[in-house]
Amino acid sequence: MSETDVTPSASGRAVFQTTLKSARIYLLSFPAGTRIILAICITMHILGQVIGPSFAARFCIVPELVYQGQLYRLVTHSIVHGSWIHLGLNMVSLLPLGPKLEENLGTLPFLALQLHAAFLGGIVYILLTFVVGAPRYRNVCVLGYSGVLLSTLVVFVYKFSTNEAIKIFGVIQVPNTLAPWACLLLFQLIPNVSFFGHLAGILVGYAMYGGGMRRLLPSQATLESVSQRGPCGMMARMPGYVKPPSSGGLPISISNGVATTGAGPSATPNAAGRFPGVGRQLLPAGEHGASLYEEDSGEGEDVE
């Protein structure tokens, strides 16, 4: 009887340990910056599950509250999500797309790009809702990483994609330069998806592609300085840390499918993978700001 009880327990522990080891190996296969974004978003969502819906409402972007000076929401809206499905779809979308940019840009420039995409996407969203002028947008709570993902998708298809077409949802094939707009339109078929939130992400991506934001990315001297001390110094010692090209910043040209950065070394994109783009959304706020929120659902796109 004793042996019968112990054997399944030992077997269960072995399976659990093997699963943990496999998960660790899988996660370590991604670059450091992509893993950091995963960790932040997952941690924030766990905290939200513990604290309750009011947690996400403290960080989502609500135009009325931004007007009142809560500018931190311009960034924090991207790292909170409305549900596990919402979080999962966005993170699954990040996994094939983020490493492609990080391996070409370097970990620190990639994270700077993601931070600027979130912040500037928040600003553009506020401007769009102000121009439209509809009162109902002033107290709507928008959250999720999909706006940043669409910015990243724009940069990817113009800077790194060597194919002429992309499959949206694994079925609908469109020219790669039209993929972000196809995602925007298809997302509107899903309830509670933010049109202006995703449009803002696309517009920011085009600004990045056009070079208007290259000056916002850290210079080579800054990269070399910060990578030697503080949190960035610790990051530089993480497994999967990618050193930036010698010229730093966004690649400025593509030749035969290879992105180059001026005098810096060239980086060849990985084989294209899946990009399940996700659109997540917002919700009408309660009487005291954004006390409730709705998630937007999204589908996947293939980058082929």
Decide which structural class fits the backbone.
Answer: alpha+beta
What is the distance, rounded to the nearest whole angstrom, between the alpha carbons of the first and last residues?
Answer: 56 Å
Q: Average pLDDT value?
A: 75
Rg over C-alpha atoms, rounded to the nearest angstrom: 20 Å
Q: Main beta sheet, described? A: 4 strands, antiparallel
Q: How large is the share of residues in beta strands?
A: 5-15%
The percent range for helix content is 40-55%
**How many runs of DSSP E, i.e. beta strands?**
8
So what's the overall shape?
A: globular
Write up what this structure looks like:
There is one protein chain. The protein is an alpha+beta fold and 304 residues long. Helix content is 53%, strand content 7%. It contains twelve helices and eight strands. It has helices spanning 2-28, 32-51, 54-57, 63-67, 73-76, 84-105, 107-132, 146-159, 179-187, 195-209, 220-226, 230-236; strands at residues 140-141, 165-168, 172-175, 253-255, 258-260, 274-275, 283-284, 301-302. It has a four-stranded antiparallel beta sheet with strand order 3-2-8-6. Strands 1-7 form a two-stranded antiparallel sheet. A two-stranded antiparallel sheet has the order 4-5. A hairpin with a 3-residue loop joins strand 2 (165-168) and strand 3. Helix 2 (32-51) runs antiparallel to helix 6 (84-105) and helix 8 runs parallel beside helix 10 (195-209). The longest helix is centred in the first third of the chain and has 27 residues, at 2-28. It is globular and about 60 Å long. It starts with a helix and ends with a strand. Mean pLDDT is 75; it is low at 247-304.
